[in-house]
Amino acid sequence: MKKLLNDPQDAVAESLEGFGLAHADLVEVHLDPPYVTRAGEVTRGKVGLVSGGGAGHEPLHAGFVGTGMLDAAVPGPVFTSPTPDQVLPAILAADGGAGVLTIVKNYTGDVLNFETAVELAEAEDVQVASVLVNDDVAVEDSLYTAGRRGVAGTVCVEKIAGAAAERGDDLAAVTRVAEKVVANVRSMGVALTACTVPHVGKPSFDLPDDEIEIGIGIHGEPGRHRVPLAAADDVTRMLLDPVADDLGISDGDDVLLFVNGMGGTPSSELYVVYRQARRLLEARGASVARSLVGNYVTSLEMQGASITVLRLDDELTTLWDEPVHTAALRW
Amino acid sequence: MKKLLNDPQDAVAESLEGFGLAHADLVEVHLDPPYVTRAGEVTRGKVGLVSGGGAGHEPLHAGFVGTGMLDAAVPGPVFTSPTPDQVLPAILAADGGAGVLTIVKNYTGDVLNFETAVELAEAEDVQVASVLVNDDVAVEDSLYTAGRRGVAGTVCVEKIAGAAAERGDDLAAVTRVAEKVVANVRSMGVALTACTVPHVGKPSFDLPDDEIEIGIGIHGEPGRHRVPLAAADDVTRMLLDPVADDLGISDGDDVLLFVNGMGGTPSSELYVVYRQARRLLEARGASVARSLVGNYVTSLEMQGASITVLRLDDELTTLWDEPVHTAALRW
């Protein structure tokens, strides 16, 4: 295993510590237990947004803590859910008196641990709502999930719900818009290589030199099928078609097209995928009104990409365009 | 070779095309010959900034075209200098009547081809100045260079000179500040893995599973020495010490610390490197006043990182903090 790490057991804590030092103007990193909050005082009267999940998907979630997006993020160990005793202080810290929305990717461990933390927070008189992200069209149930998995579409939920909270929407309104994003966002990914969890020390799965895995999960869990390595335009079609079909994309739709890197793929390749995905959407009569290309929901050093499509309306477009100031997303 | 590409010969053009579609609000992509300019009309009376070099280092340079940074970028084929007939139209397009500064990384091919293009532009009555970036302390001469190579410090030159041009400094003043950055910025990198040039199809060099290359060039050209794979804190020291020694960093210095990913390394590892590099600088009595962590000057999918230190003064800090709006750098 070749990584720029010290003791693999310390990887998440040391990385968080560096992240906190580099972005001290934006975030405060807590290490015992580990969670990340916005720097400074909580905003009174604003709905708080909390997300979290296993580490290894950076910049998700800590990279999205800041004005216009999350109030707190809770990283577990690599590819492992954070515990309720990590999530609880994050919820309490994010509460400015207007309640908290937790945004949870649909993995059984995350769902259970967030539920427990929410119960504990409610026992402390914090009002909490939750939204479950399940945008991955690749498989219905998986190794770690009942129902569809939550993947890169989570970025869209966090950005848009974050903008709604920032402008002063109440908990019911922020929850409604988060659920609207979930209802209109779909994703699918491909792996060219496996990744190696630091404390495991060997690749999570074997992928022959001439095969790729279509519909891969962000923890390297199996997708739909393995196919021979193909041209980028063909691979892009294998991802985009199921996404657009599931969303029912048709003539006149405005969409956000998000091409996400899995961590080890150069951005030059992501733009090749973007080019073809855009063409395929336009061939369906859709208009790509907003775009995002880069490494936002990764799987350590995995080579590969995912395609996310969000069907836009005026409300979602307006909220997407609102200012955001986080370590990983800023405009 | 596992990449998300179509015909490797089309990789640069297709990627540029996708880049132009995704960022049409910021840039205009020209494909014959390939160069990238800011979207819209040139700013009359502003010094134009042009940079370029081989592709494969994205987001360098096209990702830095926009307000507060470059006016045009010229990508050659992967790891190959752009030709004078690409550089010339970029210079002409960037000229708003106040002259053009070209920012060239010190590689023999880039230097020669930019020189030729500058002569051709001057023949068309454009006033051109040039600055050479040579921040890599690893080796004095290399496979492609007489003198030190230009690497990630280029981002600092482009950002700070870009801010000076944007506020209306004249060509002599912008050139002076660019040279001041060059005089105060140093870098050194490490490779954990090799990378594969698309049209070559096999890794540029062999690196055993238990070795890393200290002082690697951004084209995979040899560095100072190979050493056994070591802990991140030790590797960081091997990079930071030569950089800080060469700069003569000492008690009371304010610095910008820039940890750059080579393309295939997850950001979580870059923050582990950042943490230790910052400690080492602070142990020398320096204060890390500004930070940048991420993939900005890459070598395709290479795993590895580089450390860049820029000694700051009030002028450089002020210009660094000025707004920038490009695809890859924005605040």
From TrEMBL, chains A, B:
Coiled coil: none
Pathways involved: Polyol metabolism; glycerol degradation
EC class (word): transferase
Example GO molecular function: phosphoenolpyruvate-glycerone phosphotransferase activity
One example of a Gene Ontology biological process annotation: glycerol catabolic process
Alphabetically ordered keywords of this record: Glycerol metabolism, Kinase, Transferase
Enzyme Commission number(s) of this protein: 2.7.1.121
Catalysed reactions, as listed in the record: dihydroxyacetone + phosphoenolpyruvate = dihydroxyacetone phosphate + pyruvate
Domain DhaK residues, every copy: 7-331
Keyword Transferase included in the entry's annotation: yes
Keyword ATP-binding appears in the UniProt entry: no
A Pfam family matched in the record: Dak1
Cellular component, GO annotation: cytosol
PROSITE patterns (UniProt xref): DHAK (PS51481)
Top-level lineage group: Bacteria
NCBIfam families: dhaK1
Subunit structure: Homodimer. The dihydroxyacetone kinase complex is composed of a homodimer of DhaM, a homodimer of DhaK and the subunit DhaL.
Full protein name: phosphoenolpyruvate--glycerone phosphotransferase
